[in-house]
Amino acid sequence: MRLLGTVLFLAVTTSFCTAEDLAKAALLVEKGHAVGGLERLEYFRQALMEAPTRPELVYNVGVAAEEAGVFHVAAASYRELVQNAPEGPKLDAVRVRLAKVLFKHLAGSQENLKEAAELLETVGFEAKQCDGVATHVNALLAAGRRSDAEHVLGGSPRGCDGDTYVE
Question: Of 2, 65, 95, 159, which has the highest C-beta tally within 10 A?
């Protein structure tokens, strides 16, 4: 819960990053890439605390949280980007990642499933690149074929994964 609170706090924090802050954040990111799991997440979270206005650091926290199985933190990070980052293909990739986290790991509520479906519908760039993945997944969900929809999301082409968010 502490991590979720930190991510949400940073979402509303607007602070100026100095060159020193960015250098500290870069060092923490480098250390995070050298490890994995919860340790990676902690390094990335610390980097975000140093430079909270950098969207790529928010993304790093989301990916590390997702990889570590801390899906509520991943979803909070991706939501922050969806709400605050500029439109474009990078943001579309984040929407796809958020939809996958909501659908595959936080699908206990109808709201999360609905949000996942809406996110996929709004991703024009990714939907074209992924041969209408959003429409297909929504049709499967509407037909009550959740496991088939899950398979489609898990088996999407690499271009649909949204693996990178590089500024």
Answer: 65
